[in-house]
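Q: I'm writing a short methods note and want an example of a predicted protein-small molecule complex. Could you take the sequence and the SMILES for manganese (II) ion and return the bound structure as tokens? Please keep the output block clean; save any remarks for afterwards.
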Amino acid sequence: MEFPVEKSTFLSMMQDKVLDVPTNAPIKEHDDPFRFVDSCGTSNKALPNEDLLSVVLKCVNFAAIKHSKQRRKDMDQTPYINHPIGVANILIQEGDVYDPAVILAAILHDTVEDTNTTFEEIEQEFGPTVSRIVREVTDDKKLEKHERKLLQIKNTPNKSHEAKLVTLADKIYNLRDLLSSTPVGWTEVRVREYFKWAKQVISGCQGTNPKLEKALDMIFVQRLKEAKDKCDCTNKYNIRSASVNESEKSETSCDQEESESFVSFQSNLENCQKCTEPNEK
Ligand SMILES: [Mn+2]
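A: Understood, no commentary inside the block.
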């Protein structure tokens, strides 16, 4: 099989101190093994297994070193690296995404935003395509947090298919985290605002990956169920019907009734002051 990059570039990657290792010449645009990406986000040029394994492990090692001093904001202070690895894993296990450039970008997606990593470094180590995807999903830290969040809503619809995949998996991971426990220092209002904001960002990714989008639908249904459980309002709709995805309902015999039930369940909860505005000091 023809291999467009010096094999030694990839086979020299299994070093335990990757950042200290002098790298070979930067991967040039025309040599980038990830540059051939079609509209479905699939690499046309297959890398041999040994090179794929090598570059994926190099990438995980790189991100682990970069994030080594960071922890997630959960009670257990989970090592931060669990997050980017989990995001890449969601893409593969739940989204059937096997484009190496997307997987590498997912593993690296928070390195520039949250560590001293530069885009140039990523380009040097993993090529311009991976670097470009990471750039697309990296907030400009020079801007105020509020502005960065608004820009994510505004810019996501115009991002590449690959960047949208990383965005979807990132939100799935973070929202599941929020469902399982409230981060240290977060109020219920902040959690609710995060869900609202995430929904707006995700709406810019519609049509990117049905499986990941369905997983997100399920997360929001779960969130609504929990809001309802906490609420003593009269909008107690049938949870079982609400937990069925709307697209599935259209195939069921009682689809019309169930679909209406789902919509009214959602809108009633969203309109319920108690459900959406829990008491908070
Ligand atoms: Mn992230």
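A: Remarks, as requested: The CA atoms of residues 140 and 148 lie 7 Å apart. Residues 83, 109-110, 170 surround manganese (II) ion (CB under 6 Å).
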